[in-house]
Amino acid sequence: MKISPNLLRRGAIATVAVGLLGLAITNTMPRGPATAIQAVIVMITSLVVGYSAGWMLRSPWAMALAPLTYTLAIEVGRFPIIGPTVDELRLNETFGILALILGRGFHGLVGVLPMILGAYWGWVIVRSGASHKVPLIQTVRAGNQYAIGATLGFSILAFLILLPATTPAILNANGKPLSGSIASLEKVRLGGHEQWIMLRGHSTDKPVLLYLSGGPGQSDLPFVRVLLNDLTQNFVVVGWDQRGTGKSYSALDPTETLTLDRAVSDTIELTNYLRQRFDEEKIYLLGESWGSTLGVLAVQRQPQLYHAWIGSGQMVSQRETDRRIYQDLLALAVQTNDASLAAKLRAYREPPYKDIPYANAFVMGQYDRLSKPYTPPQSYIQRGTEANLGPWGIWGSEYNLVEKVNVLRGLIDMFSMMYPQLQAIDFRQTVKQLEVPVYMLDGAAELSARRDLALEWFEQLKAPLKQRFTFENAGHSVVFEQFEAFSQIMQETILTKTYSNSGGAE
């Protein structure tokens, strides 16, 4: 079949346009769309450029050529970008499949599929003669029912993406928003990057409690809202999506500035923002797991900013913890004749793992085999069930549709970049004293590889005041599992012993 020069010229123009779009998207969104606005921009531009390709090529082959060119341009443009959701495919790993779905899969949904749809309609309109004033209804009828359904689905998806995230208001006895209360999701600029916080309290005149999530990379905003709700009567409770996590996922890049030192500085910067905003001389700092590492470092650097430090699932030495868990799992594999587990562990080799985060994901999946049996309080189970937050809290109202994807995307990518930076930390050697009161929430059912180190460090730690609260029916996430007891401890013990405020934070 002879191809006319005019068709070749149009094909070249269409290919270049699609390629340039892919490179432009990668330049501005290196990991694909990470916000609702970005997602809609990608959807619309992909639809328009796809339509142009179909119109210019005048062939159904545009539905293959356009998305293929776009995908190749995206992959070339993001070649320098690192992280599991954009790196080489790891389809032999469950974690690798998840990374594919959350990264390339999500981008394909909002970028590639609209381009195919646009290319189809561009071809249909040319074929039906719409450019020669054929009535619109005839043009629509020229498309089959599947294309019409896909177009409707595209519109619905764009609408759902644009639905804003919210955090429910704090209500009075009459079901109306409580006067003087605060319940908001807000952007703050920390370290030159926009990051999100959630503020909840019955009164803005109460002391401030800042919660640091675990991970690295975890977003806990819905869990903070649901499980720390009791504390809002006596505190302004602040949840924070750290850079690269959840609502703050779009701030992940440039990754060369995503350092442990910068994370500590961001914590202090947020602390000072909260002090000034609520006119508090100091605030309370609470950290869970990775958040307990971050919090201790922040308190060590600027103790004058904090009434007290509260650690839950307290981490001391990530490298030593990982080494002990590895040895415990290997011993279990030998004891139970689990050759598959033993082979997998030996293939990864003893920590620190080089294959981050895949080795970590596999090992974490085995934690239940090392855990001691325990029964969390019924109130924890009931409140969590009633809230229906879903896995990792992704059904929480605090996330829009794109941010629900980002909750998992951030956990994967941010973890892979921050976790290696924690390997040199050992508080037994570097944090032997803190100049603020220290409280530790201790779960007796915690993995011994974590708990033994935490107890050892706490025993030797020097502080103006320190107290440990042990719970038999708690594991790693004590602050959530024992939320009722923790609320009582904060209000009746910690607040009473440590709170004083002269106002006028500087």
Task: Walk me through the structure.
The radius of gyration is 26 Å and the shape is globular. It has 2 domains: 158 residues, no CATH class; 216 residues, Alpha/Beta hydrolase fold, catalytic domain (Rossmann fold, 3-Layer(aba) Sandwich). Helix 1 packs antiparallel against helix 2 and helix 2 packs across helix 3. It contains 19 helices and 8 strands. 52% of the residues lie in helices and 11% in strands. The model has no long low-confidence stretch (mean pLDDT 93). An 8-stranded mixed sheet has the order 1-2-4-3-5-6-7-8, sandwiched between helices. The chain is an alpha/beta fold and 506 residues long. The termini are far apart. The relative contact order is 0.11.
SSE topology:
Blueprint: H1 5-28, H2 36-57, H3 62-77, H4 94-128, H5 136-142, H6 145-162, E1 182-190, E2 193-201, E3 208-212, H7 221-227, E4 236-241, H8 260-277, E5 283-288, H9 290-301, E6 306-312, H10 318-335, H11 339-348, H12 358-364, H13 367-370, H14 378-387, H15 401-418, H16 427-430, E7 438-443, H17 448-460, E8 466-471, H18 478-481, H19 483-498
Parallel strand pairs: 3-4, 3-5, 5-6, 6-7, 7-8
Antiparallel strand pairs: 1-2, 2-4
Helix pairs in contact: 1-2, 1-3, 2-3, 2-4, 2-6, 3-4, 4-6, 4-15, 8-9, 10-11, 10-17
The rounded Rg comes to 26 Å
Secondary-structure content class: alpha/beta
CATH topology of the largest domain: Rossmann fold
SS element count, helices: 19
Strand order of the largest sheet: 1-2-4-3-5-6-7-8
Largest sheet: 8 strands, mixed
- Whole-number total of structural domains: 2
Q: Which CATH C-level class of the largest domain is it?
A: Alpha Beta
- Beta-strand percentage? 5-15%
